[in-house]
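Anyone? Bumping this.
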Amino acid sequence: MMKRWLARFVPKGRTTVTAIPYSWLLVFFVLPFFFVLKISFSEPTIAKPPYTPLVQVTEDTKVTVSLNPAPYRTLTREVDEFATKPWTEARQDSQYLVAYWNAIKLALLTTILTLLIGYPIAYNIARSDDSTRNTLLMLVMIPFWTSFLLRVYAWIGILKDNGVINNILMSLGVIHEPISMLYTPFSVLLGMVYNYLPFMILPLYANLVKLDGRLLEAAEDLGSKPWPTFFQITLPLSRAGIIAGSMMVFIPAVGEYVIPSLLGGGEVVFIGNKLWEDYGVNLNWPQASAVAVVMLALLCGPIIWLHRFEQRRKEQEQ
Amino acid sequence: MSQRMPLSNRLYMGLGFFFLYAPIVSLIVYSFNTSRLVTVWGGFSMHWYDKLIHDDDLLHAVGLSFKIAFLSATLALVLGTIAGLVMARFGRFKGSSLFAGLVTAPMVMPEVICGLSLLLLFVALQTGFGCTGDVPPTGWFVQAGCAAFGERGVITIWIGHTTLCLAYVAVMVQSRLREMDRSLEEAAMNLGCTPFKVFFVITIPVISQALLASWLLSFTLSLDDYVLTAFLSGPGSTTMPMWIFSSIKLGLSPEVNALATIVVAIVTVLVVVSNRLMISAQRKRERAIQAALAEG
């Protein structure tokens, strides 16, 4: 009886193999989130580490748990601001809410624009013959493998007041005063679309290249025009690629830190920047943790949706 | 299928690639600029390259980045290959959906969240081991813990980068394993080979190209990462992206352009060469299959 009970706990080969990456991910990916959750309820202090412990054991072995809701209050107070005051006034006092809104709004715009720009590129790559396809894919990959920071940096030189675009336009006599493009929502959006474009093209390509060309030929033989064929056959069949690509762009874009801080220059602040500011500058780790918890809660929906979708797709393929 | 692209599509593709490459080309052009003002042309010079290779801070940062990238790519390759194998071959088991979710989540999870959460874990470990610096650690367990987590640096960055790269390796390995012809493995099993041996003698050689590609991708991802590194690095562990970021924050610097040009050159050569190798290997394989079929 005892032996059989024990045998249940002796791992089999497969279990051991699975346990290696599984435990790594549980320790270094899942467990840390609980620390974020925990510290979001503590108080900042000037100490090392700069937060108070939640559970305190006093001398007479009394255990006291103190949850500090202040980091979340900061966020809910801003919601109240919007509920009570006029929007223009509330905006000024609601840095976190505005930062969340900026991040979501620009991430959404980035997703739409990368989809509109990337779809035709992915489609054309998938439709071209083998050797061209390989070269084109390589051309998409090279910027993707090049340093992300350097690609963002490139846009500063292009967009700034005495940058490439303004220099060209001024020397052509189109404009006489430089146009301010850097440190605006436009420059942040441009940088995001540029950097996330390969993340959209590659999943779309992977999907479109599997599309059965005979379906399109059949449609053509039956007299369908190119555009109706596209909307009735190609587009519905590439739904999986569109969803995967969009989520691959949208989810990380919401948490973007580098692009708004280099191309937004303090004018366009994302929630990632606020988190970094609370962590690094204000040394308010509980506040940074609360910001992260709320961000994760907002992204939970899209992440789970993407996961479910991918799982279903894989099952169908098998 | 192999029809020529219509003119309008070619034009669109041209514009698309212009958008992708124009910024990179402008970076390269201005790296040869004499003028300190990055975007005002003052004549051709290699001055910034010369300055670059004599910048000790940068050279140190590049060395550190390469070391971390090598360590991360290697560990991620081992863990990611196992994870890919589990996802492709083990079918459904208790917690398999959670496992697949956990493996791929680091690919999309915003890096500020991963960075902050891992940092808080390391800080908790640091206080847990009691390595505050006042008392020297005693006992091998505490000493090992403090050696790893007492100060943030190479080890903490290594762990963070490995978790990120593991996801990419697992996905690439998984998709390669799914399209792989399993008859070889089955034949070996039928002849009495243990699963363990089959994996090392048959599976790994067959998917070796995917393994190499995922190692290279992991290496560049680690070499390139700024946000995770910024959270997980300590004093004295400045990596190349951190050097680049602070240089950009200080204002445009032609040195950064020069560095960018070198990076682009290396990446282009690597991608083109590995692509050529992959194509020739595939052709060879196809020829071998045809030859085998013709004989049979």
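Late reply, but here is one note on the structure posted above: Chain A has a mean pLDDT of 87.
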